[in-house]
Amino acid sequence: MSSQRATHSARSATYVLDEQVGFLLRQINQRHGALFSDAMGNELTPTQWAALAKLAEIGVCSQNQLGRLTAMDVATIKGVVDRLIRDGHAETHSDPEDGRRFRVALTDQGRETFERLVPVAFSISVATLEALLPKERVEFLRLLKKLR
Amino acid sequence: MSSQRATHSARSATYVLDEQVGFLLRQINQRHGALFSDAMGNELTPTQWAALAKLAEIGVCSQNQLGRLTAMDVATIKGVVDRLIRDGHAETHSDPEDGRRFRVALTDQGRETFERLVPVAFSISVATLEALLPKERVEFLRLLKKLR
DNA sequence: ATTTTATTGTTAGTATACTAACGAGACTTC
DNA sequence: GAAGTCTCGTTAGTATACTAACAATAAAAT
Questions:
Q1: Which distant-in-sequence residues (6+ apart) come within 8 Å of B17 by Cβ?
Q2: A45-51 contacts: CB < 8 A, separation 24 or more?
Q3: Among the partner residues A11, A17, A128, nearest to B53 by beta-carbon distance
Q4: B93-129: per-residue pLDDT in tens?
Q5: N or C: where does chain A have the smaller number of CB atoms within 10 Å of the terminal CB?
Q6: Rounded mean pLDDT of chain B?
Q7: Distance in angstroms: CA A103, C1' C26
Q8: What H or E segment, with its residue span, contains residue A30?
Q9: Comparing C-alpha atoms, which of B98, B66, B24 is closest to residue A128?
Q10: Which of B54, B122, B148 sits opposite A24 (nearest CB)?
Q11: Mean pLDDT confidence for A8-36
């Protein structure tokens, strides 16, 4: 307790930024983003792809629900859907059963884009985990899901 | 090969968003961000904290080098340093040895803030990994560093 | 010594990602 | 059926995070 080490740690010298989860997570997110835009070009951003893929998976749904399914709050999903519509990938129609709702759906172009980019998306997932051994990749994904 | 499953996968139906690394990473990043602002309040953002902690760790350095050490590009680190200065945590002086450079350093207030928030920062790192077993936490951090 | 190259910091533009507040519609409850 | 409550989408504001282009300075190459 009276050692130098104790004095040291009492002065918070043991906080090393490069050891903190948050800092590491941010960097890996950045790396993934770089891989993503390398592979996808300027066609779609990661969040736009997420919304596109989720729409392809489930079909039609409301804007806010799409946000929930893709982990975006209402303000963020609005911008993403706006840009998908602007670029011809999606379209909205007002819901006859609920005056507040828009029904968001893919256009034919959006579906074509999805089909075309699925292999690219897979390759990005692979590239992101390239530095790990096969066993480690499985374990990493398991831990990610546990942390979600 | 001629089974329904093969037909299915040929039409890219096996792409499930919730299984992709990038999507999972984004969500965990979000979770960490929420924990961070819960614990830190509005005082500092994660990137501001990263810059503050790195400055506390290494002392004085140029703005761009600080960016490299905290994984931010030149445009991002500029905004972060601007806000640290605005809030009284840091200050800059022009470098007499290099007319292009600013020497960024913590103010006394910045150092006090750092010392005060170190325990909070530790608690955020702990809370982020709360869902994992002790062994899994170590393994997760190891894999993160390998992926960086 | 001059030219080229590299680095430093700035600016403008776009896209997440959050908070907070808001109006409109739908649902509950009394 | 009127009041309160919830949900839906919008808007404004702030903070990352990137690209691209730019001017100023410094270092290297010729």
A1: A50, A53, A54, A57, A70, B23
A2: A46/B22, A46/B26, A47/A72, A47/A76, A47/A80, A47/B26, A48/A80, A48/A83, A48/A84, A48/A89, A49/A117, A49/A121, A50/B17, A50/B23, A50/B26, A51/A77, A51/A80, A51/A81, A51/A84, A51/A90
A3: A17
A4: 988 888 888 899 999 999 999 999 999 999 999 999 9
A5: N
A6: 89
A7: 17
A8: helix A21-40
A9: B24
A10: B148
A11: 84
Identity of the residue in A12, A22, A53 whose CB atom sits nearest the CB atom of B15: A53
Q: How far is the CA of A65 from the C1' of C27 (A)?
A: 19
- Phi first, then psi, for residue A94 (nearest 5°) are -70, 145
Residue closest to sugar C1' of D24 by CA: B100
Please name the amino acid found at residue A128.
Answer: T
Beta strands across the sheet bearing B90-94:
B61-62, B102-106, B90-94
Output the distance from A80 CA to D21 C1' rounded to whole Å: 27
Parallel, antiparallel or unpaired: strands A90-94 and A61-62: unpaired
Q: What is the pTM of this model?
A: 0.88
CA B3 to mean position of chain CA atoms:
47
Chain B hits for A113, Cβ within 8 Å: none
Residue indicated by tokens 């499953």: B5
For D16, nearest residue by CA–C1' is B76
Tell which residue, B9, B95, B18, has the closest CA to residue B60.
B95
The tokens describing B123, both together, are 């608690």
Which positions in chain A touch B72 (Cβ < 8 Å)?
A: none
